[in-house]
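Model it.
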Amino acid sequence: QHPRACRWLSPFLLACSVYFLLWTPELRPSWAAALLKGLPVLCLVLLLGAVPALRGHARLLQGTLLCSAVGDTCLVWPETFLHGWLAPGHPSLGLGRPLAAATYLSVLLPHLQPAMARPMAAYALLLAAVLWRGLARGGSASLGALLFAVSDAVLAWDAFVQPLPHSHLVTMATYYAVQALITLSVLRSP
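Modeled.
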């Protein structure tokens, strides 16, 4: 990993701390709530911009993180929930992911409104691809991809099947860890 990564992560960690200190279940959807939720990810975008000599993959990841922040903003307002969800590895890494996604979807689909079934199936396939590529990349990207799957599974179960205790804390803690781990994967030595 890059030797200055810890120092560069300080704004991200501070923004995460502020989020967890200020967020409450009673927090109403607002632009302030959206900024509070998106700020940690925006700090990672700035981190990648501040790292000298990063190109290609890092710049692509910056765009991905920006899209993620927009999705986070959409998830603040319940009526925009659907909008917020919207090097080759070894082939054996991808074999279990579609099966796991199909199994999870078979449990989740009966609890979804009909309008959500197709978008959720498409999202599950996308998440399976992210998991496959993250595992293929190795390092912090692998852990990030696994945590991303856990975070989204908890979020979906809580939203569509049955409320889970402390689901928001689990979802957001794993989600912010995912973003940091995937960002750090760009800083590893070639």
